[in-house]
Amino acid sequence: MRKTLLTTLLALGMAAVAFAAASSDHNTHAEAVLPKADEGEIQDSVHGEDGRKAWHGVSPLEKAAFFNQQEDYILAERTYIQILESNSDPEDKKSALIGLAEVYRNRGTITKAVDTLENFLRAFPDVDDRPEILFRLGEFYREMDLEEESIGMYYRVLNSIVVSGESNLKKYLGLARLAQFEIARGHYEQAEYERAYLLFDRIELLELNPVDRETVFYYKILATVKSGHHEKELALLRRFAQDYPESEFLPEIIYLEAEALYRLKRNEESEEALMRLLEMVGPPEKDSSKRSLFWRQQAGNRLANRYYDDGNFILALRIYQGMAAIDSKPSWQLPVIYQIGLCFEKLSMNERAIESYMYINDQLEKHVDTTDFPSLANLGESASWRLELLSWKGELGAKVDQLVMEMPSFDRIIEPET
Description:
The protein is mostly helical. The chain has 22 helices and no strands. The protein has helices at about 5-25, 30-35, 40-45, 50-55, 60-70, 75-85, 90-105, 110-125, 130-145, 145-165, 165-170, 175-190, 195-205, 210-225, 230-245, 250-265, 265-280, 290-310, 315-325, 330-345, 350-365, 375-405. The longest helix has about 35 residues, at about 375-405. The chain is flat, with a radius of gyration of 32 Å. The N and C termini lie far apart (about 90 Å). Residues about 1-50 and about 280-290 have low confidence and may be disordered.
């Protein structure tokens, strides 16, 4: 999801909490005085006369933050713990606990990160930045796949903002909207699509900037699709395409429109939508290029398979041939070439089919490690089986042709004996 005021608010808030106490007494930015050294040099700089000179004027919080930034999590954890065990100012200890939670999260020990922030809230129940801490906990629970706990934490964010007083409502308005969005997304992840739709619909009614409104609208559509409201779904999909013609979500929206039309038995319109998606070519420098490529692949595969199942092998062949050029990765290209071989067989172009299957086996033998792509190993077996079958058909056909040639010819019809 692209960074916007709404989606970056938390990151900015957490950074402010983590470093506010440390930066308040220093006018010089930490990076201007911290030594740029590797791990061994950093270790040496902590001790001895040279270390004291290198770290002169740098607070322990700034040291810990630097170690965390350099991904030296052992030193970062050690420094934060030293702050917590010392007679430091309570504000420094608050920042140290938050920083320590981030260290644990960066190390992948997410359970420790949760415990640390829970301890923070128990130790400082009236902290001014409580809504941001609760929101971060919601994120941690989601990373642990504890969606129910995550939703509960986002509700606590909203409650915390309400009880913080009217003076703080404006300050936390963006965070409140973001919490509402995450609650709706949580219900969507739990397959509670009707509930998610209603929540996304409520958020959409709020005053949002265009980018955030687009994102909320997109998730509202996904919830509608999953709910099975196909008529409503089609109207929303078309309104999205009209309102956001440059959206990074547009390829998926067009694909979903084609699927909705197909379910409504409007097959020709569905095919037109898929063809429109296939013709979309975004500039490679755009972030949406990979998303566009994926949905173009899905559209081509869906359309070609429909034509193949309907017995229109010529159209299916043309689309498969076009699809093979979309992406050169073996994991994509070789299965498409296999489908091309099947089309050639259906069109009685067995020599071309043999070429397709032989190309697959040649690529698998020379250039592709099937241990990385187990499905390609099965594809190779299928291609070999098709080659054997075509070889048998060829031999059988040759024998039949030979028998026909060896049969005697008659210039006249033999009359039966009377």
